Enoyl-CoA delta isomerase 1, mitochondrial (Pavo cristatus), 300 residues
Amino acid sequence: MPVSLYASPPGVLFPRGSPQEWGQAARQPPGLLPAQCRAFSNNKILVELDTSSGVATMKFKSPPVNSLSLDFLTEFCISLEKLENDRACRGLIITSAVPRVFSSGLDINEMCGKSREHYAEFWRAVQEMWIRLYSSNMVTVAAINGSSPAGGCLIALTCDYRIMVENPKYIIGLNEAQLGIVAPFWFKDTFVKAVGHRVAERSLQLGLLHSVPEAHRIGLVDEVVPEEKLQEKAAAVVAQWLALPDHARQLTKSMMRKAVLDHMLAHREEDIQNFVNFISKDSIQKSLSMYMEMLKKKKS
Ligand SMILES: CCCCCCC/C=C/C(=O)SCCNC(=O)CCNC(=O)[C@H](O)C(C)(C)COP(=O)(O)OP(=O)(O)OC[C@H]1O[C@@H](n2cnc3c(N)ncnc32)[C@H](O)[C@@H]1OP(=O)(O)O
């Protein structure tokens, strides 16, 4: 069921290069990796595929906080498509190479002081990321090794399973309301599917960022582990899910996710227009600028 890039209306996303060119410049020189391991890397994401297990690990490496810029999202979708089309790959672990942060969510700079055309292009890329990950045939596990607000939390929620490192400093949740913005319906639907309606309603209205134990308690993350056990645990979970026949697991996943996915696909253009109209408002631009100021002040 994954939605093909090539089926997208022409020119909507990925203006950069043909599939054959993706990541070639940054490919690892032969001999540096074990024979059963293939790697490709662009600027912001590193992917390593272990062909013996059929499991790829995708590491976000866009310091300081892995914010989801248009470039990041484009790389993310290209990497996903490459893996989806690779018969050697059946499972995917998503994690961060940046200390203490999984992803800080959408890059706020992409939503401030830009043109309406830019907002539309950016939002289409956010949608594309979600559509690809939500409809992936691969087993997807988020190995959350740092804070993960808003869009970062959405990536984790979109996976099949979430494991988070126990650390009193890490937080996770859909905190959009705290920024004076509103999580769109498909963020909300993905969240409700994980935690249930009541918990989601309270958490979304208050824009809560949950501690790790709290996130575990409400079902936002499935498991909590010490940092040193994360990789091992994620590999064990993927192996457990991959032990089932692919067709049965994939059809079940597709059945469970169909209604939410179809709803989004049916309202995709309307959702882009809503975003552009909302984000272009002076009052929203002011809220986002104040939030960025607050983030900077917090440091000093
Ligand atoms: C119909 C309308 C629909 C609208 C829907 C819109 C949906 C939006 C979804 C989103 O994802 S909005 C983004 C929400 N994200 C956040 O609120 C996270 C903000 N960041 C943090 O809380 C923290 O940065 C952190 C992730 C907990 C990490 O903390 P740490 O102390 O390690 O780093 P900082 O010093 O705070 O940040 C370093 C550096 O990075 C900048 N930055 C942080 N987050 C973002 C971001 N999301 N976008 C852009 N830039 C970000 C931060 O300002 C610092 O910059 P400098 O001061 O170093 O220049």
